[in-house]
Fold each of these.
Amino acid sequence: MKKLQIRITGLLLTVTMLTACNKWVDYDPKDDFKITDLEYFKSEADYRSIAVGTYAPLQWLNQIVPVGDIISDNSVTGGESASDVLSLQQINNFTHTAVNGTTADLWQSCYEGINRANYMHQYKDKNPAGVNISFPGKDALYGEVYFVRAYYYFTLVKMYGGVPLFVDKRLTLSDLGTIKRANAADVYKQIEADLTSAIAVLPVVQSEKGRATKYAAQALMGKVLLYQNKFGPAAAMLENVINSNAHSLVVDFNSIFLPSGENGPEAVFEIQYSNGSATYDWGHVTRGQGNYAVQQCGVRGLNGSAAMPYSPGWSTNLPTQNLAAAYAAGDKRKGVTVLDIEAYKTANPGFNITYQVAPYQNTGLYNQKYLPRKGETSGQVELNYSNNFRTIRYADVLLMAAEAFNKSGNDVKAQAYVNLVRRRAFGNNANDITATGTALYDAILNERRLELAMEGERFFDLVRTGKATAVLGPLGFVTGKHELFPIPQGEVDLAGLTQNPGY
Amino acid sequence: MQYELIKNLKISTRFGYTKYDGNAKTFTPLVFFGLNNVDNSMNGDGTTVAGKHNSVAQEKANYNQFTYELFGNYNFKVLTNHNFETTAGFSMAKSSGNTAGTSRQDVPFNSWAFADYTAATGTNSPTNLNAATGYYYQYEKRNASVFGRINYDYKEKYLVSVTARRDGSTSFGKNNKWGIFPSGSLGWVASKENFFKSKFIDFLKIRGSYGSLGTDNITPQDRTILTDYLASLYGSGNSIGYTYGNNFISGSTLASLGNENIGWEKQLQMNIGFDMNFYKNKFNIAADYYQKNTKGLIYQASVPAVLLGGLQAPFANIGSTKSSGVDITLGYNSRVGKDLKVSTSATFTTVKNLVTGTNQEGTARNVGGSYFNGQSQTVSVFEKGKTPYYYYGYKTVGLFQTEAEIAASPLQPGAQAGDIKFADLNGDGVINSKDQTQIGNPFPKFTLGWNLNLEYKNFDLSVLTYASSGNDVYRALERNANYTNKFRSVLDRWTGPGTTNDAHNPRYSFTDPNNNARVSDRYVEDGSFIKVRNIVLGYNFQMTPIKRIFKSVRLYGQIKNAFTFSKYTGFDPEISAGLSDVGVDRGAYPQARTYSVGLDIKF
């Protein structure tokens, strides 16, 4: 009897244990305090938070600004030596290949931004749990998301031409086989569609600076139309911004680039940087809240009295003498754009300036618009400069409008807009442009260079206007090849994308 | 605990528990390294460099592991010579741990004596978020398995063993938590047969086995949302925050894709072979043919950024591999004359590795072996039908001697005289990424191990030698930069037409418009080597006075990593690395040669 009892107890114990085994290896993400996406997208706050995440990769696009000038006649890479910042050196020399850290990082940043925006789009009507979450301002919030998505696709299409195009959802591994390059026209079509959606719902003013407004979307739309040579629609679109009188040219050109000038009346859209959440991450220098491109511009070993306003940096992205020579006498933009360090030192003996001459490709000139200034950084000083990129200034809007009107036959308006910009630059109307037709067109393009130098526009302007061969040919530009950057090698290898011609 | 329930049926239960507690403290003082050193945190006069701080970091970690097993054995005989041993049971295991730490800047007096969180004075400000920090993390993994085994033998002549286990783990997705792992073996001791009457062969066993086991060394793969800005920035660089005006907002985004289908990585191994002793048991030989199949290799696939942006692919069972070969061990044990005892064995192993499958219709490629030589590069590729992580790149065909030669060759953008000429493998007249191919195999064709032990009177000598043949090494340690030291081979570089046509020695160019530094066979070398890993020479003291006090006294001298014979031009052809980096030499510190002298005393 006792033996039987033991057997039954043993058997029961075994069966209980075996069922327990199954439960024993169950796992719930909450065991590790992880939030899954089924738990998310449940409130307005969640939606707003994930929309912030779609803006973040705008900051990562940091190097597109130096690249746009370094690959043009505006600036050279500089740095410590010919092998310092090699990826930028090769871009400077038109020897860049499909293996290039800088362009690969820009590509990745755009696609993370697009995937984040798509992820937001995917759950617009129903959240992952299948519930509709509605709240006031939801449409306007999605307007911001479509604006940034348009910005990412525009960055891609101007760098690479036709790129893989997808808008419905964040991609997963199973989509790998479906990826291929769309043609550039289709990418532009999608950008226009996104901006049209954004324009319809975005407010004209945002309570938080740096969020996309209706005018930011219209200005970007104007630029996108201009890049497709759709001059009539571009002129009309840009006039929306001009006629709203929401923006104006500030009187003092230099003040635009000071901390106090950020998000000012001339700012149509600025990519925001700050020193408020200092990063120490040298592994991801373009991924924090600080503007890495500012440190790159600085004068090496710069030292001086407390009153001297600048901080040292790495002497990369050095303006060329060619750029300095392009400014006419009396053009106030010259001194704001290029700092002649030796002249500055001589003019300000009280600052007791000492510095190291740029060791490679010295031009004697520095990018004053984004030169590191004292008090603008924090923590790991190299990584946390707070300078916003003045991504779309009202001056840019006026010059784009001038170009669009000139090309669509209205030289009166074209002259009026370009001369608004020139009058601010010279402080008088004695330097107004009176030319018409093609001469006016060339004058407007030249004005774009002078006004927007070191703001990352130059190369893309030269390419889209067909002037790249004439201007950049002597610097190594190969027609039919260098209009576009190479698709990063990893994308060619892993996604089977076709490479751009010549690479 | 063991309990004999009925005759020959034993129930056993085992409980094991391991606990580890760790405490660590790290002090990073302000340091003056020398004039103008960029790493200085202290000036020469003892003042602090602006923006720099000393800091103390403290961490407590604990780790717990317990295992519980319950199983029964039942042994019985059928007739007299059929012996059965059976076992059945289950086991459960849990390993968990957590770590908490803090760090704080501004330790008083820059001194170890005050290096503690309580004494440091750092306080966070908007411009310095690292003055006082804390972190905590935890993990837990649970396993369970049910198993059974039957061993059978007939007069210790025929041997059969069959085992099956079913294992579960919290690591895997809900669809694939459990895996079944059978194994079994068969043996026949032929020399015990009555008809076996060889004088020459003393022992002969023919055997075969099949085994399988699983690996679950990953954390669960969930589809998670990240809301912590600092966590998004550090590590992945996949930042989620943005600053509107001066208003910083930590946003959120999808941080990982998850994989509900991930399951056990299985290793299946099959052996067929024999063991034989012959010539008065002086010689023995063991020979095997083996085949190892890994199915459902757990790895992170390489995915293009266009697909996942800044996210990493989730861990998945991405492929399967097969290794096969023969393994022969030959041994000799004997006494030569009166005083010399010789014992030696040599093992010869051949291996052939092949990727037999990857995910996604077998077309996926995984890349590995990443390194930086001015640009980030990857050299190794994992794809179906090839050696795992073979080297993939361009083939070189010498150097361009003249501009005329460049003009007459397939179009190679950026090339100048003195640059490397790459092979146009697809013959389309252009050198581009389509001309890449296999340029090396990191695995050896065979390896050889040789162990020699000699004893002569009171002396003993043992030598351990290892050889690897046919393994390629990729020299990923060269960097094409100014102001860095160069290898001596730079002296042989191309300096004008006719100076050299060796693709290892192109002209020196820092800007490298031809991209001579691209992944190519320029960097692939035969890494075959012979290493004498260990030499020990000992002497046993046998004098009577010593033997009275001690059981034994032995003095020995040892050389570890004694000699390396190799044509490899880098530091060390034997590179320890994970599968995806196999044979990629990033300039790791070579193994040291160690001399030691020791005294072994036994009481």
Amino acid sequence: MRVLSLYVENDTFIHKLEPITKLLYALISIVITFLFPSIMVGAVFVAFSLLLAISAKVFKRMLLLLNVVLIVLLSMVIIQGLFYRENVTPAFRLWGLTFYKEGLLYSLLLIVRVVNMIISFGVLILTTRPSDLVDDLVQKGLSPRFGYVLASVLQIIPQMLSTTSTITDAQRSRGLETEGNLFQRFSAFFALLGPLVLNSLVEARERAMAIEIRGFSVEGKRTFVRQIPETKADRWIKISLYVAFIVAVVWRIILWVM
Amino acid sequence: MGDVSTKISIEHLTYKYPFAKNVSLEDITLSIDAGQSIGIIGRNGAGKSTLCYVLSGLIPRFFHGKITGKVTIDGEDVPTMPLEKLIRKVGLVLQNPFSQISGAKMTVYEEVAFGLENLGIEKDEMHERIDTVLRQFDLYKKKDENPFELSGGQLQRLAIASVLVLKPEILILDEPTSQLDPRGTTEVFETISQLKTLGITILIVEHKFEKLVEYVDKIALLHEGKLLGYDTAEHIFSTSEIETYGVGQPIYTALCKRMGLKKANGYYPVSFGETVALLNGLKGSGMDRRTYNG
Amino acid sequence: MVDAIIKVDGLWFAYKEDEYVLQNIDIQFDDKPTAIVGQNGAGKTTFVKVLKGLLKPSKGDVWIAGTNTKETTVAQLSKIIGLVFQNPSDQMFKSKVIDEVMFGPLNIWKDKKDKNFAYEQSIKALKIVELDNRLEEHPYDLTLSERKLLCLASIIAMDPKIIILDEPTIAQDRFSTRKLAEIIKELIKDGKVILTITHDMDFVAENFERTVIFYQGRVLDDGPTEKVLSNEENVVTAHLELPNLVKLAKALDFKTTPLTIDDFVEGFSTYKKAEG
């Protein structure tokens, strides 16, 4: 894997949206689901996010992503069902343990929030070229230095992984045991970490020199070879999102005051 | 004697890295004309890379430390020139093909654009320059590929392209072929040939002398920070002192020294072609002279 | 007639399913210093990793001094066969030269009383590479050439019978290359079997009796260096170059293949006599 990214190329409506629009949706939907302690609100957003995933033709991959957190979700159900502090009403018994209604409902709330988080961010990640997202942020005001760090990390990390395998080979060739008991593995760790860190620092230095020569630290206007356009659709969606956000905040305040 | 302008002028340059015990460059004086190609040779640690860093502006901007002496390009002072102006005059290509790519771009096309974006070049001009340079260095077909997928030789060509897209008139290459196989090495030297025809002033640090002498007008010999010689290849390599500096010489020169064979002008041959001609001349008359198409 | 210390039988290797990087390699190595040449991607590094046991054959077998690499561990094999990696930064992590060299010996001679033995072996190794006066220095304070010699010492200290050098002349100046050649000669005198992976054809011509050309995962040619490197067709196919002196000899229509300047001078005088 050359790039740490889940992006798959396609040209659905969602794919063509500006990255910031998708980011905005993810952030605002997450904030709203956390503002309201309502499973209904969470479920609505989950449904909506799922619709987006289907429209972007990334549903299957989304399921794979969700699979990864399945265990976490399951453990939430169990822990809250058993130990939530407001547990009063028993719901059912399993393996001699009592699961309570309040805890189960609370865990459901947590689940819809987490699932929405994953799906909304998943839509962003699966339909957006990583460097496009960074370019878009930089074009809208993010420091170019920070943007560079974000973009390069995605490719440098896979490179570091391949260096790690060379380092492992070199040290194993000198008799280092990488299997075996805990103590052996612990000592092996330093023999692998040392060269990796040093190597990465040396390479980072060389790369810093190379980008310096190509004007990275020059102040002033920057241009972009890949321009990320903001279409009418993007503007409408962003406006709707801002409105939804304001409405949600006001509503929440009203509910709180009442 | 034509209108040859002095492109690069160095006078009494001395430099020491911060925290270093000794100076890396001591009292260097030399000048280079526009369009010339200069080879820089010397043992590892002689100061060759340091000289490259001073000329490209990395010293003092990246490495700090104090420079004494004068370094000018087109008459303007290099250490104090605004970086924006300097990188449009000088490009630098380093040894390691992999650590020269920015790492932030996912295609060859965007990688070449990196420098142009930093300088704020307008979009239309960017596209034009990138297309030109990709075709020039035979990378157009690879423009949508990820830079990390390229071979060593291709990466060095990409590094050269990414630097030349900024249109500098001077290109410095610091051991550009040291990590490459013979095919990659040939690719880089062929690219240098191309650059010469474009009139670009070239400085190249190299240990592969047999190849180097075919491409440069003069050679600068550095030893322990000092400039010990700055002359044509035949002058530099014909001396017997070259052995004492441990720098080495083209194998052809070593051979001819052993056989005691000098050219008509009194110097030893340095290149393949000269050696063949000289040895052929010794074979006697009426013989088949086959020239090698290498 | 020395027995084969490395025996490779019908070796096939693939990293990914059905994409064979090494195809049907049958080869043996005795005590002759041998150079393995080929362009990047030809399979040389993979081959050497298989010899070291870091990779196990997909098909076929490899025997190192009679032991099948499939039946032992990399650590065990490192007592007989050592590999000096190309990039010193891929292995250096200690803060003193002596500690870096002792790392390998301490791993393979784990017995407490062998700590002294590991120390002695390390000093011996450092003497061979002429770094024995730099014991307490930090490895990163050494020049790149010295670091490469340090890595060589770290393998010599483990006292393997076979030492493989991966691209030892890359980024080296001529002085260091000459020094390396002398060290190799000394190791051969000590009875070590030296193999090298390299593109430096002049280095091969001057120091290695036997040359094996790898091309696209197969052995394209294998034999005495003079013979292999005089076959221009094979050399060009493998995207390599002739050593400079051989190139010169061909241009002058020599009948012999000179590998060193001495060879060339001899060849030339014989040649002149024959023609004159």
